[in-house]
C-alpha cells in the first residue's frame, strides 16, 4: 500500500474541507476610502498574492464590487448576481485538507483585515508599495512596446528582408 502526500487513507488530513468566511467592508464608516482598489492592488496582484500565500480563494462581493456602476445596475437581480443587493463584503473560501483549513483561513483573514484598515494617505505604507509596483509594471510595459534600435521593434542587426542595413560606406 502506498501513501500519498496527504497521509494515510482515512486520516483526518487525507480529506478536504470547504469553509467560507465572510468579512464585512466598512464602507458606511469610511465612504471615501477605496477598499476595492486597495484589496485588488495593481492588476489584481495584491489579491492574487493573498490567494497564492494562503491557498484560499478571495471574492469581493456586494454593491460596488463591479467597477462599472452601469454594468452593476444591469446585472443586479440576475441569477448569480444576488450579492449585488448586499453591502460590500469579502468571501474567503478555503477548500483544503482538514488539518490546515482553519489555519489558512485565519491567515487569509488577518491579511485581508490589514488591507481593510483605512489609513491616512501620508501613513499608508501598503498604498506606497502598490504604487511602486504599478510604476514597475508600467515601466516594463513601456519597454516592451517601444521600438528597438532598428526602428521596427527588432533588436536584430538585419532589417525585415534579412539584409544588413546600409551604413553609408
UniProtKB/TrEMBL annotation:
The keyword Nucleus does not apply. SUPFAM superfamilies: Eukaryotic type KH-domain (KH-domain type I). Residues 139-169 are annotated as: Disordered. It comes from the Eukaryota. Residues 17-113 form the K Homology domain. The keyword Translocase does not apply. InterPro entries: BBP-like, KH_1_KHDC4/BBP-like, KH_dom, KH_dom_type_1_sf. Pfam families: KH-I_KHDC4-BBP. PANTHER family: K HOMOLOGY DOMAIN-CONTAINING PROTEIN, RNA-BINDING PROTEIN RELATED. This is K Homology domain-containing protein. It comes from Brassica cretica (Mustard).
Amino acid at each position: 500500500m502506498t501513501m500519498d502526500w496527504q497521509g494515510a487513507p482515512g486520516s483526518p488530513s487525507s480529506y478536504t474541507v470547504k469553509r467560507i468566511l465572510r468579512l464585512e467592508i466598512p464602507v458606511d464608516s469610511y465612504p471615501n476610502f477605496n477598499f476595492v482598489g486597495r484589496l485588488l492592488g495593481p492588476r489584481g496582484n495584491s489579491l492574487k498574492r493573498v490567494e497564492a500565500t494562503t491557498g484560499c480563494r478571495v471574492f469581493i462581493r456586494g454593491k460596488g464590487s463591479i467597477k462599472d456602476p452601469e454594468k452593476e445596475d444591469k446585472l443586479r437581480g440576475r441569477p448569480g448576481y444576488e450579492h449585488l443587493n448586499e453591502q460590500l463584503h469579502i468571501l474567503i473560501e478555503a477548500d483544503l485538507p482538514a488539518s490546515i483549513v482553519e489555519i489558512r483561513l485565519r491567515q487569509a483573514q488577518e491579511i485581508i483585515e490589514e488591507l481593510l484598515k483605512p489609513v491616512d494617505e501620508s501613513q499608508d505604507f501598503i498604498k506606497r508599495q502598490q504604487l511602486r509596483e504599478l510604476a514597475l509594471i508600467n515601466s516594463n510595459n513601456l519597454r516592451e512596446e517601444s521600438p528597438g534600435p532598428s526602428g521596427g521593434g527588432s533588436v536584430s542587426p538585419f532589417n525585415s528582408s534579412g539584409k544588413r542595413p546600409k551604413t553609408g560606406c
